[in-house]
Write a structure and sequence with these properties.
By secondary structure, this protein is α/β, with parallel strands linked by helices. The protein is built from 17 helices and nine strands.
Amino acid sequence: MRQAGRSLPEYRALRGEGSILDAIKRPDLAAEFTLQPVRRYGVDAAVLYSDIVVSSHAVGFGVDVAPGTGPVAQHPLRTTADLARLRPLDAETDMGYVLETIDILVDELEVPLLGFAGAPFTVASYLIEGRPSRTYENTFAMMRNEPVLWGNVMERLTQHAVELVDKQIRHGAKAFQIFDSWIGALDVDTYRANVLPHTRVLFAELLRLHPDVAGIHFGVGCSHLLEAMHAAGAAVLGVDQTVRLDEVRRRVGSDVVLQGNLDPAAVLAGRDAALAAADEVLAANAGHPGHIFNLGHGVTPQCDPDVLLAVVQHVHERTRR
């Protein structure tokens, strides 16, 4: 997961205070933060150091990432007039610093680089609520009471994600992840009616542009949405720690490629607990070749880097032939 660097002392030494968006605007720094977990852990891919609201910030909507809080918009998106602040994205012009970071990384990395973008629903929830939320009351109100505006917001954010990932791939990313962190708040019918059509467009358009590049679709608390998420058309389904991998394949098909799903809490519990939990994940995968071993969610800042290193080494020993 992209947060792998947050627990590293070398990350904290360079990161300093302030918004992550400021660090992302410095390609040398963003490249270094991308490289740090790869150097430390010897993982098989690098995840671009970025953030899911970076495109909304880049077009001038008025959103920042407040340390200790998350994305915050002083003037949330509540009306059609507010949508004007969320203009279409031109990644080369608006986010050249992200693409410059990728250029640096492609020259330095010996493993593939994964780009990423925020999924339309999760980004919309931040822009509409104005800050992280547990109830999403304004988001649900727009979805139900102003369906035209909701559709326009989702279409605009879909354009952002497609444009950003397209340019990341053109600059050298070998795969990509779409983070829909908060879709677990939706029931299946609401997801299928209001979110899935846009997510399906996102993956279909990227598949059209880059037919040989795999996309990963990830959400949190989504065990009730797995069949619907699979219908979005991503090559890889990211799975959090709330459901076993064998159960996912039983429900959506034995040939599905999965990413996941070690519980981050097991890492916090120490080396022995983490390795035992990793073995449970591998057992649930049962040697299936379509598996990207990963956490079920992000690395917490409190994580012991030595425990994560032990997990990586253990998984490599158990799976490399």
